[in-house]
């Protein structure tokens, strides 16, 4: 077992964590645990930024090449940054693409930490070779084609005195996988063929493996370099050579996902976008976070606290959003109460997402309308609330349909603002630039307020892409109407008013366009 640190010691700990090759779902549980406890995260440029959402720590990107994302950082600088941060008492996660010890420089970082007396732990990650093969439908050790696999670097340390033995590689009885070999693919292929590897050996190049931008080209060893060049592939790419490649078309699965390759703008508030973003990844898409509103606490809790004090008087409690559920129930707990205060009331919610939020507090909704909209909720409640005390936990702004209809039905309605819905003053610069360049396929719009604020925050260059490069998907008829009022062209509308419904509408539209 690892030794316990002296609690009086100011020295922190460093975790060298493998982040996997790109799909954020491939992070290990141990890696997520380390990120959750980190004070500082230093992450490689190839790490998917979505993985950083497992941490509340400050994060710094380490660039190994000059570019728009930052300056070049030498390995010695990274080593020193890790040491200094740990010496200041911080818990540091060094987040590395793939596995820290497979063609990375994790062992160099570990040696530097050991020399400096810094406690550290290495957390393995899924390496690019295995992930790229699986995500393209290739079994590197298929029993009929290969009894061994060799991992080879296509980018050797120039200071080494040894070089690859291509005669041994050509005779190797299995699959060859070259990391970082794209720029040297012509010489790699030529060297293998000259060493005796048949030019007709099946070969494959995988670019951006496990990401929605993944692209694959297959061919013979003799032609694979030409094919990769014609396809315009660029790093990160990986080369697979061997008979197992010919089985790819039989078991490919990742590239057949319903939204594979699509870039989708997620307009949910920051801090509440994770579920939709990770669902987009599951469907094969690349989520782009576009928060247009923010959710904050009410300026005063007086009215909410007064309602909590008399919860026993209410016959119905109504929630029309996930934020409403969280706002009231979290306040209930924070004021020293618990769910027993709700024992006398029935609960109505506007839709399945709100019901799911309620279930996280071990509460079941008594009423969910067939259609997830205020008009349907009001119609379902109207026969049940005459003369009844009804509490609505609501946002600081919204439509008047529900209070008007419930009051007309004879309800004694109490409204309390449990959260504020505020407009974000500007979209993330990088995201806005992607829209302007026409790099987004879809933007999901999940409320009228989001539609209105999105229209205000888009530049003229971004608006020029709407309906052409970038299509808009609306969650409901009310949202569609609000979007069109401010000049946003809605391409599709969800049948079910949830983010799952939005994704389904996008998928259906994509399938119909390719039919």
Task: Give a structural overview.
- The N and C termini lie far apart (59 Å).
- This protein has a 5-stranded parallel sheet, sandwiched between helices. Strands 6-7-10-8-9 form a 5-stranded mixed sheet, with helices on both faces. Strands 12-11-18-19-20 form a 5-stranded parallel sheet, sandwiched between helices.
- It is elongated and about 90 Å long.
- It has 19 helices and 20 strands.
- It has helices spanning 29-37, 75-87, 106-115, 128-136, 166-171, 185-194, 224-231, 248-251, 274-282, 302-309, 322-334, 352-359, 374-381, 401-408, 429-436, 448-457, 460-463, 477-485, 499-514, and strands at residues 13-18, 40-44, 58-62, 91-96, 120-123, 149-153, 175-179, 202-207, 215-220, 237-241, 263-266, 286-289, 293-296, 316-319, 346-349, 389-395, 412-423, 442-445, 471-474, 490-493.
- It has 515 residues and is α/β, with parallel strands linked by helices.
- α11 (322-334) links the parallel β14 (316-319) and β15.
